[in-house]
Design brief:
This is Serine/threonine-protein kinase AFC3 like. It comes from Verticillium longisporum (Verticillium dahliae var. longisporum). GO terms for molecular function: ATP binding; protein serine/threonine kinase activity. InterPro entries: CLK_kinases. The chain folds into two domains: about 50 residues, no CATH class; about 80 residues, no CATH class. About 35% of the residues lie in helices and about 10% in strands. By secondary structure, the chain is an alpha+beta fold. It is extended, with a radius of gyration of 19 Å.
Length: about 120
């Protein structure tokens, strides 16, 4: 997750909600709102570590479904045993957010081709 240095996205979100409230319904006394998209900020902040509720001991192999879909490591996707190596995948995902790293698509294909053989017996 990345911090947001540009607070104007939150101001715009609030103003939009005030002028055009999101559809909602009430179930058992709780309001449920339709999601509303945030604009992209003009400036991103530093990466932030989060979701420690999913933290596990790294030396042991796991099979749990973890990580957001968009950043999910290949071994998690194919339901192969995984360990701390999936954190390295996420580091690569953060690396690709820097648009000056123009070769990341090529690097990603190379990584997947090199590791694909190790996944085949597990599927």
């Amino acid at each position: 997750m990345l911090g947001i240095e540009d607070d104007s996205v939150f101001t715009a979100f609030e103003e939009e909600e005030l002028s055009d409230p999101s559809p909602r319904k009430t179930v058992d006394g709780r309001s449920i709102y339709v999601s509303r998209e945030l604009q992209l900020p003009k400036a991103w902040g530093a990466p932030v570590l989060c979701d420690f509720g999913s933290a596990v001991i790294g030396e042991i192999e796991h099979l749990e479904d973890v990580q957001p879909d968009i950043y999910r490591a290949p071994e998690v996707i194919v339901e192969a045993p995984w360990s701390y190596s999936i954190d390295i995948w996420n580091t690569g995902c953060v690396y690709t957010l820097d648009e000056s790293n123009a070769n990341y698509d090529t690097i990603l294909v190379q990584i997947l081709l090199l590791t694909a053989k190790s996944f085949i017996p597990r599927i």
